[in-house]
């Protein structure tokens, strides 16, 4: 059976397109002719001289009617019918043109007010606390706005001389420029554009990029509208802030920064001429491209155009050409990359991706770039000595315990090291903390009635677990130390006393206290056992640093903060800052202050317990049985608290130490979670990094002693000539009977000097 051929049906829209487009060609000729006529009127120099008065002749219309008498025929006659038919045809032609104009052009013509109602995409800038630029966030287009009156006259003159020398004289469309460009293109074989700056602005901001006849008509109409809606200076300012200069640089301000490392307001004549020539073909003319000499040739053309328009002299042109151009080094411009990416995530969570990528926010962070560089240097220096020990990575934090501000954050050794996952931010990753978690267990015991002088047996013990082998903890040195005080047990980081304390005071109570202090990763208590106090539960460095900050602050907790202020593109403050949890930190920016610069916090631990923890961790004598008196943890003459931690499998090595002004946390290990070699204790790897960093911090700012709460008293526990003091909450101090002790030190006390 023969299959009938399918006939192609033309839709109504297609018919209109086929018929309408030729009609638009005629329409354009009319528009351009009218524009040319108006242009002739606009330039007095092109007007014809007024002729002498002469006798008025009959109008063209009257002459036409005389010669075509059929148009004057009476109604009802054949000639009259022809006139009606002709009139009807003209009406239909008019309707046809009007409908096509609406359907193809006016129906979806953008509003000219979008030039100002919908601002361009702007880059978000992230600064350190002193105003040093760390990074710019943008989507596709990196742009910063600048006012026209802030730009040097050279730059404006160079742009106009090159792009649109009649800018201040035409009405949005330059018919003579179009004719001149067309003539040059045909006769000289060159490619010369005839679009005005107004047309380029409309084309780049309001219209789609495809080159069609319809889009060109829209461009002409919108250009005329723009000229009636905005002043010339407004149009020029919008153009200079919109046009692309190559790569991701959009707008003259960002172009000046990317090419010359300066603001556009500081550009010289030579630099202005170079940038003004780029928009015609930024990729080919770029000084960073494969043919940088082309940009120099283009610069000369721009300067010659400026001479031709009398905006500079010939001598100025020669001088500008002889001036060497010093370009800003290209590359990924980002400082403190792990911190910057951390802040970016907080901003996106708070304000949304679109606002961060295009909203032109100005973000001042808590970061101190000098401290950041110090920490980064110390990490890299130490890791360079541990290469043979299979230690590939390191990380660290510096905080201000008083305010909770993050002063430095190094997430990995090298952010750009893809081989070792350098973009992973270890400070935010969940890893086992080893013994660095023990102070939480001791804080629980001290909160429950124990004191630093309370004794505990460091002797073998096993715990029976249902369905599992007995759990028999051991100390890291494999020895047992007999009866020891809590002070010595924590300072020397003995494992068995910590296990016994947790067993006595309760695992659920420790988890609750840890959450109150700042641990956010222990969501399921059923996962943990007594080994939690030895580091069996994963934490993040940021969380545990928050815990130690609570100790340093005397038991009060403030959210860690990385952002001081956020301003929109107009310079207005947005409400609040952003806390480390990503929530709007309503209490962080503009918070009532107490005691100087410290924001109020929530009391999560009694001041007396916090002081006792601080006293133990800063007691080098109590630490000596395990670490010795010459340990890198000891900073002679400096009152610094410190605690280390190393996991049994040697995958993580930590050090947390603090004064009232600074907290430093350090880590070494491997991103792939593989074990290290020969890092058997807490005094190698992370500790030297911590020690050198802390020394640099307290060098010019000697740390003050930790504040003693008013409800505590000092008790001399020694019956020798050398007094030894321990602080107790009033009413809990032991009674000392030196006659019974026969002049010896109280056996249950291993305390610090006052």
TrEMBL record:
<feature type="domain" description="Glycosyl transferase family 51">
    <location>
        <begin position="131"/>
        <end position="306"/>
    </location>
</feature>
<dbReference type="GO" id="GO:0071555">
    <property type="term" value="P:cell wall organization"/>
</dbReference>
<keyword id="KW-1133">Transmembrane helix</keyword>
<keyword id="KW-0645">Protease</keyword>
<keyword id="KW-0121">Carboxypeptidase</keyword>
<dbReference type="Pfam" id="PF00905">
    <property type="entry name" value="Transpeptidase"/>
</dbReference>
<dbReference type="GO" id="GO:0006508">
    <property type="term" value="P:proteolysis"/>
</dbReference>
<dbReference type="GO" id="GO:0008360">
    <property type="term" value="P:regulation of cell shape"/>
</dbReference>
<dbReference type="GO" id="GO:0009002">
    <property type="term" value="F:serine-type D-Ala-D-Ala carboxypeptidase activity"/>
</dbReference>
<feature type="domain" description="Penicillin-binding protein transpeptidase">
    <location>
        <begin position="395"/>
        <end position="672"/>
    </location>
</feature>
<keyword id="KW-0812">Transmembrane</keyword>
<keyword id="KW-0328">Glycosyltransferase</keyword>
<dbReference type="InterPro" id="IPR012338">
    <property type="entry name" value="Beta-lactam/transpept-like"/>
</dbReference>
<protein>
    <submittedName>
        <fullName>Penicillin-binding protein</fullName>
    </submittedName>
</protein>
<comment type="similarity">
    <text>In the N-terminal section; belongs to the glycosyltransferase 51 family.</text>
</comment>
<comment type="similarity">
    <text>In the C-terminal section; belongs to the transpeptidase family.</text>
</comment>
<keyword id="KW-0472">Membrane</keyword>
<dbReference type="Pfam" id="PF00912">
    <property type="entry name" value="Transgly"/>
</dbReference>
<dbReference type="InterPro" id="IPR001264">
    <property type="entry name" value="Glyco_trans_51"/>
</dbReference>
<dbReference type="GO" id="GO:0009252">
    <property type="term" value="P:peptidoglycan biosynthetic process"/>
</dbReference>
<dbReference type="InterPro" id="IPR001460">
    <property type="entry name" value="PCN-bd_Tpept"/>
</dbReference>
<dbReference type="InterPro" id="IPR023346">
    <property type="entry name" value="Lysozyme-like_dom_sf"/>
</dbReference>
<feature type="transmembrane region" description="Helical">
    <location>
        <begin position="84"/>
        <end position="105"/>
    </location>
</feature>
<keyword id="KW-0378">Hydrolase</keyword>
<dbReference type="GO" id="GO:0030288">
    <property type="term" value="C:outer membrane-bounded periplasmic space"/>
</dbReference>
<dbReference type="InterPro" id="IPR036950">
    <property type="entry name" value="PBP_transglycosylase"/>
</dbReference>
<keyword id="KW-0511">Multifunctional enzyme</keyword>
<dbReference type="InterPro" id="IPR050396">
    <property type="entry name" value="Glycosyltr_51/Transpeptidase"/>
</dbReference>
<keyword id="KW-0573">Peptidoglycan synthesis</keyword>
<dbReference type="GO" id="GO:0005886">
    <property type="term" value="C:plasma membrane"/>
</dbReference>
<dbReference type="GO" id="GO:0008955">
    <property type="term" value="F:peptidoglycan glycosyltransferase activity"/>
</dbReference>
<dbReference type="GO" id="GO:0008658">
    <property type="term" value="F:penicillin binding"/>
</dbReference>
<keyword id="KW-0961">Cell wall biogenesis/degradation</keyword>
<keyword id="KW-0133">Cell shape</keyword>
<feature type="transmembrane region" description="Helical">
    <location>
        <begin position="23"/>
        <end position="41"/>
    </location>
</feature>
<keyword id="KW-0808">Transferase</keyword>
<keyword id="KW-1003">Cell membrane</keyword>
């Amino acid at each position: 059976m023969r299959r009938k051929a399918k006939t192609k049906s033309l839709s109504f829209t297609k018919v209109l397109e086929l018929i309408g487009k030729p009609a638009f060609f005629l329409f354009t000729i009319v528009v351009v002719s009218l524009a040319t006529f108006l242009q002739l009127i606009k330039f007095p120099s092109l007007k014809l001289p007024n002729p002498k008065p002469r006798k008025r002749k009959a109008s063209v219309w009257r002459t036409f009617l005389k010669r075509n008498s059929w148009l004057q025929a009476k109604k009802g006659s054949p000639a009259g019918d022809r006139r009606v038919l002709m009139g009807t045809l003209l009406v239909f032609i008019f309707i046809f043109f009007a409908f096509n104009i609406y359907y193809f052009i006016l129906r979806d013509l953008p509003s000219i007010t979008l030039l100002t109602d919908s601002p361009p995409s702007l880059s978000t800038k992230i600064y350190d606390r002193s105003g040093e630029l760390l990074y710019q966030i943008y989507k596709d287009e990196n742009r910063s706005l600048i006012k026209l009156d802030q730009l040097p006259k050279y730059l404006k003159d160079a742009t106009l001389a090159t792009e649109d020398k009649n800018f201040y004289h035409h009405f949005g469309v330059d018919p003579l420029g179009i004719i001149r460009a067309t003539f040059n293109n045909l006769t000289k074989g060159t490619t010369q554009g005839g679009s005005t700056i107004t047309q380029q602005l409309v084309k780049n901001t309001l219209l789609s990029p495809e080159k069609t006849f319809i889009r060109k008509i829209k461009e002409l109409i919108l250009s005329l509208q723009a000229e009636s809606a905005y002043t010339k200076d407004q149009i020029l300012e919008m153009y200079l802030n919109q046009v692309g200069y190559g790569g991701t640089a959009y707008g003259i301000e960002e172009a000046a920064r990317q090419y010359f490392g300066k603001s556009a307001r500081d550009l010289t004549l030579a630099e202005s001429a170079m940038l003004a020539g780029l928009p015609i073909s930024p990729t080919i003319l770029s000084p960073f491209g494969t043919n940088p000499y082309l940009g120099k040739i283009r610069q000369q053309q721009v300067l010659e155009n400026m001479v031709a328009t009398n905006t500079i002299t010939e001598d100025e042109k020669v001088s500008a050409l002889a001036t060497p151009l010093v370009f800003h080094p290209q590359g990924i411009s980002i400082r403190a990359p792990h911190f910057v990416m951390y802040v970016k995530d907080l901003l996106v969570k708070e304000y949304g991706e679109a606002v961060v990528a295009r909203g032109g926010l100005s973000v001042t962070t808590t970061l101190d770039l000098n401290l950041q560089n110090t920490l980064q240097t110390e990490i890299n220096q130490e890791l360079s000595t541990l290469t043979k020990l299979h230690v590939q990575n390191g990380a660290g934090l510096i905080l201000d315990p008083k305010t909770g501000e993050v002063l430095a954050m190094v997430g990995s050794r090298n952010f750009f090291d893809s081989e070792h996952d350098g973009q992973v931010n270890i400070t935010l990753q969940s890893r086992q903390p080893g013994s660095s978690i023990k102070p939480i267990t001791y804080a629980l015991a001290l909160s429950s009635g124990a004191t630093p002088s309370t004794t505990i047996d460091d002797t073998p013990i096993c715990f029976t677990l249902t369905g599992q082998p007995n759990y028999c903890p051991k100390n890291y040195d494999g020895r047992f130390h007999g009866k020891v005080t809590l002070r010595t047990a924590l300072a020397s980081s003995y494992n068995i006393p910590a296990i016994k304390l947790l067993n006595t005071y309760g695992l659920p109570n420790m988890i609750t206290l840890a959450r109150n202090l700042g641990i956010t990763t222990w969501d399921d208590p059923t996962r943990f056992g007594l080994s939690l106090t030895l580091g069996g539960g994963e934490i993040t460095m940021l969380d545990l640093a928050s815990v130690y900050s609570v100790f340093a602050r005397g038991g009060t907790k403030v959210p860690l903060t990385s952002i001081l202020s956020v301003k929109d593109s107009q310079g207005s403050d947005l409400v609040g800052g952003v806390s480390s949890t990503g929530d709007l930190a309503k209490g962080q920016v503009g918070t009532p202050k107490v005691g100087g610069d410290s924001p109020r916090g929530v009391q999560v631990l009694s001041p007396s317990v916090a002081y006792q923890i601080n006293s133990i961790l800063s007691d080098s004598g109590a630490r000596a049985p395990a670490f010795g008196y010459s340990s890198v943890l000891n900073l002679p003459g400096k009152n610094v608290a410190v605690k280390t931690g190393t996991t049994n499998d040697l995958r993580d090595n930590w050090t947390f130490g603090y004064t009232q002004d600074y907290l430093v946390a350090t880590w070494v290990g491997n991103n792939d979670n593989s074990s290290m070699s020969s890092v058997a204790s807490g005094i190698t790897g992370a500790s030297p990094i911590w020690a050198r960093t802390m020394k640099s911090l307290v060098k010019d700012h000697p740390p003050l002693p930790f504040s003693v709460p008013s409800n505590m008293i000092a008790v001399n526990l020694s019956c020798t000539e050398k007094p030894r003091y321990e602080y107790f909450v009033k009413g809990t101090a032991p009674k000392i009977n030196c006659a019974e002790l026969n002049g010896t030190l109280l056996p249950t006390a291993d305390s610090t000097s006052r």
